[in-house]
Design brief:
The chain is mostly helical. The chain has 6 helices and no strands. The protein is 67% helix and 0% strand.
Amino acid sequence: TEKTFKPIALGMPFVIVGTKGSLKYLKSYGFKTFEEIWDESYDDASDDERIQKIADLLYNLNRLSIKEKQNLFNQAQSILQHNWDHFYKGGFESILWTELTNMLESIE
């Protein structure tokens, strides 16, 4: 959704508060997530556990000092650049067009 693509388009890190497997689904489109930087095990958790894990993650990120947050942001640069390039330089668009074309062909 736009809530996911807005931080990608703006080069910002993100945590997805969504259904189980949302990060896995996003990765299937060629995007990278921040599993090397923070715990993303929430993506596989059941509903109640997932919400608690996300809340804990956000709480812990919020408690970091400005310097620690800057360090995380610096660590995320290659992921942010990859996602930005994938979004703006045609990789994602190509995947979507192929998917749409295949769906339309299957209707015929």
